[in-house]
Write the structure tokens for this entry.
Amino acid sequence: MPVPRLFVATPLAPAAEIELGDAQARYLTSVLRLGPGARVLLFNGADGEWSAEVGSVGKRGATLVCREATRPQILSPDLLLLFAPVKRAGTDLIVEKATELGVRTLQPVLTRRTQSESVRTDRLRAIAIEAAEQTERLDVPEIFEATPLGKVLGRWDATRRLLFADEAGDARSVPPALAGNGGPAEAGGTNMALLIGPEGGFEPDERRMLRALAFVTPVSLGPRILRAETAVIAALALIQAHWGDWQG
Amino acid sequence: MPVPRLFVATPLAPAAEIELGDAQARYLTSVLRLGPGARVLLFNGADGEWSAEVGSVGKRGATLVCREATRPQILSPDLLLLFAPVKRAGTDLIVEKATELGVRTLQPVLTRRTQSESVRTDRLRAIAIEAAEQTERLDVPEIFEATPLGKVLGRWDATRRLLFADEAGDARSVPPALAGNGGPAEAGGTNMALLIGPEGGFEPDERRMLRALAFVTPVSLGPRILRAETAVIAALALIQAHWGDWQG
């Protein structure tokens, strides 16, 4: 069995004691059946990964003691995903997969044809934490509150390029659209964002508005109709392979 | 509402009459609420796509009449997916997404660490048909019966190159591994296959055997641990963008 990994929201340092709340303590004792002395890996998004030892465990909580650092902190590449929430299972899948694929920030956006207006950000954050634990990330993606697309574009940082999955079909594929962009700003390139629309696509005037923005590059995801979650995963894989941390 | 698309297993030609069985007739009448005269698109994997008109509808069946061809038949690129079945929801997702991403053939393979030995191929075929209808494919991927990996490799057509997602981490990314391969054999290149292992990965001697085969190229899917279905979608997107029908 691989060593369990847990995200905690407390500082990690040599001999630091970490108090787990009810839910994580129950997971350690009831699901994983760990007792005092067992080994667990911890990360908090800032201090790298640490090996820790289970101290006391009880019904109401558990204490872990940090032993040694196992990996230095790194952040996922500065990649922002804008996605229109779809049905609950699809939205959950988008958050889980974007976490596996190393997105740093998620922004649910409301478009004209967005069907799901109520986005439970706290639930999505819990999904992102669990996916980060399993995918062995050292950070958890930040998830912003759902916001109308126009508002997000209105306050855009123009140094970030936005790839927009355009179903209309005359756009280039992702690799040529990324040519010449040597990675995130911290590696000398340009930070990226990806926009995936709702199941019904964008309204014609939303498309025109997007294509008129200087920081937007439309891209095509092939000749077939993709579900929103498939489009997210496919485009993110191409971005990580050509711009992000799947290279070399 | 987009025009409904149905896969049928009968010839399509001008004025051909198509008898739908119970399930499809119920779908047309109860879910889509279509009556006589309504328009439906049909495909059968051989005769292209046809516009058809609902003739009679009843509780036990429905009749459609072919009007005119709307798209000529094309096949998806000759891409074979070998995948180790995972839990049911994951396997369902793999079949649905491989269909959206244009895989021509699916071969479930049993590896040492494959957890699910019973693969209901008939159920997977139904999922592939529904996904082909929605993704606007003109063919439905063929799904073979689950077979031990060694047997599949033992009867391999050595003109087909197999990309093997190797979690060990020293392999190249997919785009350089595909460099120089100009598409499927019918376009002058080399037909492709992709192998994605089970959640627990391959046993060390399975890995050694795979890497020793002349037709196998190991590839890396980045620094994080991906679930099997995420790996399938990500690798297929890269293959279609660099070898298949997402280009230009």
Remarks:
- The helical segments of chain B are 22-31, 88-100, 121-135, 149-154, 174-178, 204-212, 228-242.
- The mean pLDDT of chain B is 94.
- The interface with chain A takes residues 97, 100-102, 134-137, 173-175, 220-227, 230, 233-238, 240-242, 245-248 of chain B (CB under 8 Å).
- Residues 79-242 of chain B form a domain with the Alpha/beta knot fold (CATH 3.40.1280.10).
